[in-house]
Amino acid sequence: METQNTIPAAPKKYDVKYLVRLALLCALSIVMAFTPLGYLHIGIIEISFLCIPVIIGAAVLGPMASTILGLVFGLSSFVMCFGASPFGVILLQINPIYTFLTTVVTRTLMGLFAGWVFKLFHSIKKTRSLSFTITGLFAALLNTALFTFCVLWMFAGNATFQATYPLGKQVGTFIASFVGFNGLLEAVVCALFGFAVGRIVAAIDKRAAQKEEAKAEKAQAKAEKAATNAPPVNSSVPQADATGKAQYAPDTATNQQPPFPSPPDTQK
Distance between CA 98 and CA 181 in Å, rounded? Predict the structure, then answer.
């Protein structure tokens, strides 16, 4: 039986299963944010892999879940600006509000757009198998692009930023560092992860389809067996009607009429 790579749509009502899956992905995002699993530090440059839970949420739970996961990603990034992230500490010292917009709002938008992108490409038959990889690539590139744009727009002209950050006076070098090295590495990792998730989901779907097919065949065989072993109906047996009188039905197998009682003898 040929199976298609499909994902169950997010439930219309957020049931317990949906909330449990979302909670697990949020927990995974938090664990990755505050452990070496989520970041690769190369000097002052930080390469984040926290787009991965967002990609999973977009594929399995839909745009709403990916938006919430993007918000969790952003909030954890903002919390790290209070000491865990050297670059974030610099931004926070310059302007906390701009830092919040750069870390939280951008990641929330990334999660929302990632969910929409997956939904769009997964609804097209020709791109359905590539929707996971496309979503991973898109989420990573959009995350880098939004973050870099906000940093250049809100902080690049600040004297403290230019004096503290080595690349502050060279915007081209800054873009090459973040978009070229940082962004491309994140994009490659997230695209490969999206591809792996797609293969896993396809295998799960195939196994589920096989189980459903076997279940349907078993039910059909059981119904056929019950129909074969059913006793024949004897139509010549009288059946009582609503008044309690015996009624006879013609015997279609022998083409004979059922016996009827003889009329009463009126002679004395």
Answer: 24
Do residues 17 and 23 touch, judged by C-beta distance below 8 A?
no
- Residue 175 pLDDT > 80: no
The least confident of 67-76, 101-110, 210-219, 221-230 is: 221-230
Q: Which amino acid is at 226?
A: A
Contacts of 148 (CB under 8 A, 6+ apart): 174, 175, 178, 179, 183
* pLDDT tens digits, one per residue of 184-203: 888 888 888 888 887 887 78
Structure tokens, 109: 């938008």
β-pairing, 39-42 with 45-48? Answer: antiparallel
Kindly report whether the global pTM for this prediction surpasses the value 0.85.
Answer: no
Note whether 247 and 240 are within 8 A (CB).
yes
Element (H, E) at 246: strand 246-247
